[in-house]
Structures are given as structure tokens and as C-alpha cells.
Amino acid sequence: MFRNNYDSDALTFSPQGRIFQVEYAQEAVKQGSVVVGIVSKTHAVLAALKRNAEELSSYQKKVIEIDAHYGIALAGLASDARVLSNFMQQQSLSSRLTYDRPIALAEITHRLSIRAQKSTQQHGRRPYGVGLLIAGIDTTGPHLFEFQPSGVTQEMVACAMGARSQMARTYLERHVDEFEACGKDELIKHALRALKESLSQDKELTVDNTSVGISGEDEAFILLDGQSVVPWLNATFENREGGEESMEVDS
Amino acid sequence: MTSIGTGYDLDNSVFSPDGRNFQVEYAVKAVENGGTSIGIRCKDGVVLATEKLVTSKLMKAGANKRIATVDRNIGMVSAGLLPDGRYLVSRARQETASWRQIYKSPMPVASLAGRLGSFVQMFTMNGGLRPFGITAIVGGWDSEGDMAVDGQVGAGPSVGAGGKASGKKYGGPFLYMIEPSGLYWGYYGAATGKGRQAAKSELEKLDLSAGALSLEQGVKEAARIIYVAHEDSKDKEFELEMTWVSGLSGPTKGQHQEVPKELREEAERLAKKALEGDDEMEE
């Protein structure tokens, strides 16, 4: 990779007005495994592809519940995400304690953005190397927000980030008009199909590597992991190979 | 820029031999790539408008507002790095809130511009910081009389410090623009971002200093100017976002608000029509 004079910290503008350290942090997001989020009129859903470091290791957590009404999916440095998810959990709890109400998703996203912005303008820190999808429901309905290391946050109807996420994004753009009317089942299926688009040739969605998070009207955020995700995989992909095999692992 | 790459442009708060602070100049470059934002000071209010580029069709339409309300009577919009803009808004909100705490009255726009200018300047002098990659436009309405504020005790003196001298005019619409260097000026019409040149020349045609343009007319001109400024990047889609603030007797009753949907759509219709008219004349 080429080097230039203006990329050694996040406090230096290049002559074109770019901040390379922030752009490099954004690259870290693209190295993470793919995550997808979609929102309908009633539900918000997250789906993620988990990776394991080696055959015998466990899989990296990709979807985290923050509060009863929302959760996040992460792409990039998982340890940075843990710092941010701790922050979000604290903020969410303090909202419930102080105001006796779940924090609005736009508000928590805004606080996250302000926090991330500081590490791109103040000395002694580096930008966070993680992108997040924040999905859940509050008094104004279901929401999906995208968070980038630069501190940019945007509300989306659907979003994908991480390695090879362009394929998932193409799927989402093709079906973007259908999402609003989707029920819970259809929305999860769309998310899983989008996720599958981004897999490399030799890979498949399995009981081990798939995570789904969902919240809806009068439904608390649920994390579907391991065996609880199998019915959804079977329902989404008919004639799935290896479905029974993964059941055997558990028995 | 002759001394580029000679080492004087790598650190903030370092002068080059010819007395320039390159990092600030580079920050201005970040502003010049942002979507166009404008502000118009009319005789009975201020309009703020911005061109919000739609970078993905997966973005939620109508969400992701770019113009922020700082205090009830003040709005703010910026061009450049979005998170920097949001950070400056949060600072502005702290300033106006603490002003209310201390003085029991809303902060004048001029005072806010001054405070923000000082804040932004600090980021050009300190080695541990970088300048803001934004130019911010601040617009608002200062009340003509003393406004009742929650927690206020007594009416305050009628003249002298803290009061109003008789026979003098107070309050009205105000508009300021703050640059990455911390420099700020008051404006009749302000423009920043990618299409600022086109927007500026359109603003100059309006003869705003005469103080004849009405707020409603200003809304229509603002929409048209954003559409004109967008001509250069026609292939990209955008959403027009507009807010306004008038005096107590005006349509917003002294508050900074989004321009009502009907009026915005009417202004957009006229803007498109005006552009088509221009094209025909060229042909």
C-alpha cells in the first residue's frame, strides 16, 4: 500500500480536505464479516454472518442486545464494538432510570455519533474501527440506523456493511419497495437472502455462523442464535443441504 | 500554494514562512466538497436551506435532517464534514442553554456567532486538535421586547444594562456564517458548500440589503437558488430541506421551524419551472 505524508493521525487534513486516518478506519469496517439490517412498518431486523478464527474456536459475536427495545450488529473491530455497546447500554439504562422510558433510537445514535466524532478531532485517540447497524423500535416506530467510524450516522430502510457487502446491497436495492409492507417472517427471510448473496462461493449459512436479531411492535428484541436460527434457515432456503447434519451435531 | 509538502502543512497551529496556516486552508477544502447550504435574511425573518444529496436509495426519505434547531429562535446548518457539524450544533445548544441559565433570556444570534467563532478558532491554535471541516450558517430571530422566560423573577430594569433604552430599535432577523478559521461575518445572504459560487451570484441579484424581500418570497428564492446550485451535479439526486424563523407576529411566532410541506412543495414547483424557463431561453 502506498503511504503519504498526511495519514499519520486523525488530526491532519490532506490538501484535498480529507482525513486519511478516518478513511482507513472505514477500511477496517470493510474487513469485517457482512451484516444486514432491514426495517418494515412494524419490525426491524438484523442478520449477520459470524466468523471463527480457526476450526476449533467459537464464533465471534456479531449481534448484541443493548436494551429490551433494540440491538446492534457490528462489522469491524469487535473490541471497539464492545466499548461502544457498553456505552450504549449505560446510556439506555440511564434513560430508563432518569426518565422511566426506553431511549429513542435517534437519540442514542446521536450520542454515539458525537462520541465517535471526538476521536477524529481530539488528540490522543484513534477513530473507532467498527461500523454498526442499530435496529429496534421506539415510540415513533421501528428504525434502522447506520453508524460509521467517521461519526456519520444515517437512518436507512435497509443497509449492509462488511466484506463483500455490495452483493447484499444490490439485493436490498432490488427489493427496497417491498420491505415496508413485510411482516416479521418475510423480513427475516429477506435479511437472510441478502446475507447469503454476500457469501463467497464455498460458504453457506449454517446453524453456527448465522445470527439474527429482531424487534417489533410489542415484541422485545430477540437474538436468534444457534439452534433457534435453524427453522428460519430452513424456511428461507428450501432444499437446504446440511440442514439435518447440523441437527446431529447437537444430539 | 507554493509551500505544499515542505513540512509546514503537516501540523495544525504551525505557520508557514509566509504566514499561512495550511491545515485551516485544507479544512476549507473539506467544506467545498459538501452539499450546498444557504441562508437568506429577509425583512421579517430568516430562511435556511440545504441541498441534501441522496447517496443511496436505501436511505430513508425525509429522515436524516441536516438543519438543526439550536434554541427555540435559532437554526443552524453547515456544509462539510457531517459529524463536525453535529458537534458544533451540540456546542451551540450548550451555549444557548447556559445563556438562558445566566441571563434568563434567549441568546442573541450575534452573541452565539461570537461564542462559536471563538470555539472554532481554538481548534486552529491547539496542537492536539484539528480545525473544523465545516462552514456553519446560523440564523435566528432576536425578540424585539423582553421575552418571558421560565424561572424569571421580576421584569428586570427598563433601561440601562440588561434593559432596553427607549427610542432604539431592538431585535429582528439575524444571519451569520462561521468559517473553519473561526472567522465570522454577518450576512444578508450566505452560501457555502459545493455550489456556493452559483448560489452567491443568485443571492447578489436579490438586492437583500434593501430589506424589501418578504419571508415567504425568501423561501421561494431559497428553493430556487438550491436548485440552481445543484445544476452542476445534476446526475445526483437530492432532497431540499428548508427551515425558517420569523418574529412573534409572523408565521413561526418567533420560533425556528421547518417550512410547512405545502409551501415547500410550492417553492420547489416554482424552482423547477424557473429552471426550465432558463433552459428554453438558452435554446
UniProtKB/TrEMBL annotation, chain A:
GO terms for biological process: ubiquitin-dependent protein catabolic process. GO terms for molecular function: hydrolase activity. One of its GO terms (cellular component) is nucleus. The keyword Transcription regulation does not apply. It comes from the Eukaryota. It is found in: Cytoplasm; Nucleus. PROSITE patterns: PROTEASOME_ALPHA_1, PROTEASOME_ALPHA_2. Keywords: Cytoplasm, Hydrolase, Nucleus, Proteasome. Residues 6-28 form the Proteasome alpha-type subunits domain. Belongs to the peptidase T1A family. The 26S proteasome consists of a 20S proteasome core and two 19S regulatory subunits. PANTHER family: PROTEASOME SUBUNIT ALPHA/BETA (PTHR11599). This is Proteasome subunit alpha type.
From TrEMBL, chain B:
It is found in: Cytoplasm; Nucleus. The keyword Magnesium does not apply. Its main location: cytoplasm. GO terms for molecular function: hydrolase activity. One of its GO terms (cellular component) is cytoplasm. GO terms for biological process: ubiquitin-dependent protein catabolic process. Pfam families: Proteasome, Proteasome_A_N. SMART domains: Proteasome_A_N. Keywords: Cytoplasm, Hydrolase, Nucleus, Proteasome. The keyword Hydrolase applies. Residues 8-30 form the Proteasome alpha-type subunits domain. Belongs to the peptidase T1A family. PANTHER family: PROTEASOME SUBUNIT ALPHA/BETA (PTHR11599). The 26S proteasome consists of a 20S proteasome core and two 19S regulatory subunits. This is Proteasome subunit alpha type.
